[in-house]
Amino acid sequence: MKTISGFTAVLCLLVLFAIPVFAQQESDSPYDIINGRHQDFGDFEELASGPMPWVRDRTFVPDYRAMHLEQVKRYESFLAKYPESPLKAEALFMLAMLYLGVEGQDVHMFRQRLFVCQGVALEQRNQQKLDICQMQFMLSIASAGGAADPTYQRLGRQVLKGLVEKYPHARRYIMIKPGAGGFRFDEEEIGAIALYVLAQGMIPGDRLSYYQTIIQEFKIRPELRREMQNRLGIQ
């Protein structure tokens, strides 16, 4: 009898210690529900609703290129952690928009010069010089071929084209009020907004062709639909 009781006690201990082990293995999944929400949804909402990383140089001039690249890393980490998430298409779209916003390597240097130039003009209270500073900055951007980094422009467009091919009718997951928890799936489709963004860099004829495709085949927010219909002369 003592033997049976001893065996039972050992078995109980094994069960008690085994349960937390198995529970821990279960919770290791990145798609677990935590505090009533799927982990990937919570992480995405925190990422999408949070501020951009703030990066400045020693002169306190914001480095927008570095800020965008830091945010790019965050979205790339999300996609690597949740490759099967239902939010993958939305995360890819956000990543594409970040790629398109990356400034060229020389732009920060131009902005530093602008900062110094404006500082001198303000100290002298010279409005004309202040205007000249801004004009010189814009001319520097133009001489560099624009503010955007061409490599990241290509990456962004590649991601957008991939979204049209692989996730054309995936619904957007948008923020309707600030903060995590303020998101919902929308009627607008990823393929529609991806095509709309791609169309902005095209010649007028091709842009209108894209607008026609969006209107006929996709769902997009009413204000963009009206804008495209007006451009196409559709009542």
From TrEMBL:
<dbReference type="InterPro" id="IPR011990">
    <property type="entry name" value="TPR-like_helical_dom_sf"/>
</dbReference>
<protein>
    <recommendedName>
        <fullName>DUF4919 domain-containing protein</fullName>
    </recommendedName>
</protein>
<keyword id="KW-0732">Signal</keyword>
<feature type="signal peptide">
    <location>
        <begin position="1"/>
        <end position="23"/>
    </location>
</feature>
